[in-house]
Amino acid sequence: MYVWGNVNAGDKAITKGTVTSLRHCYPHSEISVVSMFPRTSAQFEASSNYIRNQFPDITVLPSLPLVSRDGSLFIRALRTVLLACGLFCTPLLKRLCRSSPLLFAFEQADMVLLNAGHLLFWSDRMGQKRRILRSFILPLVVARRLGKPYGLHAQSFGPFEFSQGGYVLRRLFHYVLSKADYVSVRDSRSLTELEACFTRREIGRIAVVLDPAFYLGGRDESAASAILQNHGLERNGFLAMTVRLSRRGSYDRLPAEVAASYATKVGEFVSLWVSRTSMPVAFVCQVPRDHEDAAFILSMVPSECREKCHILGYANSPEMLIGLYANACALVGMRFHSLVFALLSAVPVLGLHYYDLGPKIDGLLRDIGCGELSFSIEDVDPEALVDAASGVVASRGVLSASIGKRLAKLRRRSERVLRSALALPVW
After folding, report:
1. Closest Cα to residue 375, out of 354, 394, 390?
2. CB under 8 Å to 127, separation ≥6 — which residues?
3. Which residues, 6 or more positions from 106, have their beta carbon under 8 angstroms from its beta carbon?
4. Which CATH number among 1.10.730.10, 2.60.120.260, 3.40.50.2000, 3.40.1000.10 corresponds to the domain 221-394?
5. Are 281 and 306 in contact (CB under 8 A)?
């Protein structure tokens, strides 16, 4: 299974939650976690340390040879050629397993599991398409060539836009999905995305499960209290907010004019909220670049309202974010895992999303019975969003209890799916 870097607290939560749920279902199993980074990378150590601190007996392996950027250009090219040849020659691939710890682990595994997340999509407006093919699809093809079962766990899928090279790309995604021994989605909207592009016969039976981050426990109360005290914020006395405009970066960058139009709407909401309620708004940064997006939005807010707004800065652990949201009266979020962290703290949420982010936020809220609290930023009226946020704050207790019951039911179902679908030995 895969682990991400050390920057996005949501990615940390996914991996910790996946290991936790696997250990709950298979308490004596041996688990190896595969990094997306080569052993020499600083990010390899950073991403590995968090997992090792939580699970000292976990084996952390460097990335697949084709993914790795270790070595000279010649060495990288040689590894690529050998692995590519191995995909068409199983004896050569098995021979390569002797020299690669990761390939050897694949060969010895009972199952290869692609960790949860929003990994498989294809959109002309999104970058990093090579990363999808190289880092997420290639390892599954390698597992199949080695004769190993593989699964795609708790994924969000889509959007799918196969405008260029459509036939080949669609066949590749179809191959990965149809050959999988287990596929689950973390939101029911992803099923809709798949069914719009593939038939049920092509993709087989797919279960809906909770995102692994819902298996986290504990919060960093001391760090959260220090941050809130530094900004003069009181418990249940502020509205938390996360934003994701993706104005830079290559993975999910938005065109500048689109990002600006979204920022304008969010700025209008913040202005109206502060004017009507006099309640502070605290922007929480799940990743460092969220700070820049929050500052961009606040530049559009009138100065008298801006005085009531705070950018809390980057929180680098799921436990810190859970602690922060536990003190908020509600969260208006554009980041999926911040919504999860707030729900873990029994704090009601409203979700803001747009097309390029995929269906995950809307799907999550619908699955927990709160579809009316999901808003498309392309269509939302800021005044309607203020009314919805005010209603959520007023009915916080009743809403939180209802969501808690729904989450408990979904968690039990997720555990049943994981036990039956993987069918790993329970020693």
Report:
1. 354
2. 249, 250, 251, 252, 253
3. 97, 112, 139, 142, 143, 146, 148
4. 3.40.50.2000
5. no
**What is the predicted pLDDT for the residue at 251?**
46
Q: Which residue has the tokens 């820049």?
A: 292
What is the C-alpha to C-alpha distance for residues 143 and 290, in angstroms, rounded to an integer? 36
Give dist(CA 146, CA 94) in Å, integer.
7
DSSP string, 33-56: EEESS-TTSHHHHHHHHHHHHH-T
Which CATH architecture best describes the domain 2-215+411-422?
3-Layer(aba) Sandwich (3.40)
What pLDDT score was predicted for residue 118?
81
Question: Tokens at residue 48, please?
Answer: 């590995």
* Mean pLDDT per 10-residue interval, the chain, length 427 residues: 72 90 87 83 81 88 62 55 64 73 84 83 62 73 87 87 69 84 91 81 81 91 94 96 73 76 95 97 94 94 96 90 96 96 94 88 94 94 96 91 90 87 56
> Model pTM?
0.89
Match 């697949």 to its residue by tokens.
64
Alpha helices in 215-307 (DSSP H): 221-230, 256-277, 289-298, 303-306
Same fold, 2-215+411-422 and 221-394: yes
Amino acid at 116: A
* Residue-level pLDDT at 357: 80
What local confidence, expressed as pLDDT, does residue 281 receive?
A: 98
* Overall residue count recorded for the chain in this entry: 427
Q: Is 128 left (phi over 0), alpha (psi -120 to 50) or beta?
A: left
199 contacts 5 by C-beta, under 8 angstroms: no
pLDDT of residue 427: 38
